Amino acid sequence: MNDIYIPQSEIQKQLNIADSLKDITKGKKACVITFGCQQNENDSERIAGALEMCGYEITDNSDIADVIIINTCAIREHAEIRALSEAGQFKGRKAADRSIKIGLCGCMAQQSHRREQIYKSYPYVDFIFGTDMHHRLPEIIKTALESKKRVSFITDKPHNEFGVISEGMPVRRESGYKAWVPVMYGCNNFCTYCVVPYARGQERSRKKEEVLAEVESLVKQGYKDITLLGQNVNSFSGGCSFAELLDKCASFEGEYTVRFMTSHPKDASDELIEVMANNPKVAKHFHLPVQSGSSRVLKLMNRKYDREKYLETAMKIKARVPNVSLTTDIIVAFPTETETDFADTMSLVENVGFDMIYTFIYSPRVGTVAAKMEGQIKREIANVRFKALSDLQNDVAQRLNEEFIGRTVRVLSDGYNKNGIPCGRSSQNKIVTYDKYVPEGQFVDVKVENVGAYLLNGKII
Ligand code: 5AD
Ligand code: SF4
User: Fold this and answer.
1) 75: helix, coil or strand?
2) Digit-coded pLDDT (tens) for 325-350
3) Residues at CB less than 6 angstroms from ligand 1
């Protein structure tokens, strides 16, 4: 396990480089723009931490930043187009001020065909770095500042011989009461539609001691909502099972909640379900992506479970964990998906009763098995299926939320929502609005009076 850790000597080298940059970066600002999943958000917090360590002041406003880093996502074409268009925004600024440095990183940067496109069409992008290079950011910034040419820090294998887990680099957390804690990186599952195993490399876990120390320190600092992150958390292999790790993370003193994302249904273990059922600090929320309700499609997706097995796991969770919220991801219009396959997805959604579904239209990804499959589905059909599933889910979610009317839920305050209404999140991760402002990061009890499909509303008691 140790060989995947970056040696402390390397980390020290980076800390020294960061120190040496402080004269040049005095008074300068840096901005990190993030696309994609929670893993990317956490990576951006690490990138911002490293930039701060180099002497930059972090800003949300790219218009006044001297260094801009775009952290990209490659999961679907839409995400890639958005990131490229963001990069395009900086052409004019760069032309007006050559000293500004623009960087691009994340899953898109990791893909050679996208890199070629960026090299060709985005000459004003000054530096590119891969998903396993965050710990080398001081060196990357120094090289970019000194070089007149474009700088690239990419290894074609994201898990190189150098080691890919760095402990001891700073994190600049966006929130003072919610925190991400990665427990493992990468994915070995190779679902046939998915780019993640190529963009983020093989699974590797942090050591359980490192995870526990980070969580304990967060709890001591007053963090109230901690999410353990991994593409497939149940594959955690840092010295104990994931269930045991979760249980231990949720056993420090104080009132706080521990969540986790994401579990693969093939190994959502009984042990994990029991920890959720028995440990009051573990949030009653299980995100369990099903992707399709058709066993035939699941096989083509290489998901390693079938409809029956998924239903069995989902029902076990519902039976063992009272008031649990079950959420999922579904891809519609996977190659060859027939009306019958889609009807299977619709009926599974009815039968399980998900609190929320993230529905995606299948997007072919270069290099994946599914992109080469015959039977790609037309966009018009995909749109119809997407809408039908969303309509059905709205009804299901409304029905499930109605069961909350009259009940009291414990809520962690997020202050105000964007409409100026006091709001927060319940243990089930449901959005709750209420009558009186409560400072961010405080728990309150709310008696639910009325609900929408994705909202509980009530009064503080
Ligand atoms: N097309 C559409 N959705 C995808 N996802 C992953 N790859 C693709 C793709 N090629 C979805 C899956 C996954 C979620 C994070 O993104 O549902 O669970
Ligand atoms: Fe992608 Fe499948 Fe791995 Fe999830 S489990 S990251 S969908 S390959």
Assistant:
1) coil
2) 999 999 999 999 999 999 999 999 99
3) 75-76, 193-194, 289, 291, 329, 331, 360, 362-363, 365
**Residue 15, domain member (yes or no):** yes
* CATH number of the CATH domain containing 52: 3.40.50.12160
Q: What is the pLDDT of residues 70-122, one digit of tens each?
A: 999 999 999 999 999 999 999 998 899 989 999 999 999 988 899 899 989 99
CA of 65 to the centre of ligand 1 (A): 33
Domain membership of residue 336 as a residue range:
284-403
DSSP helix, strand, coil percent of the chain (3-state; round to 5): 40, 20, 40
CATH code for the domain of 447: 2.40.50
18 neighbors 12 (Cβ within 8 angstroms): no
Predicted TM-score (pTM) of this structure: 0.94
Same-domain status, 413 and 393: no
- For the CA of 292, the nearest ligand: 1
Q: Whose CA is nearest to atom 17 of ligand 1?
A: 329
> Rounded distance, CA 292 to CA 451, Å?
28
Please indicate, yes or no, whether residues 292 and 362 belong to a single structural domain of this protein. yes
Split into its structural domains, the chain has a count of 4
Amino acid at 378: K
Name the domain boundary from 108, 129, 161: 161
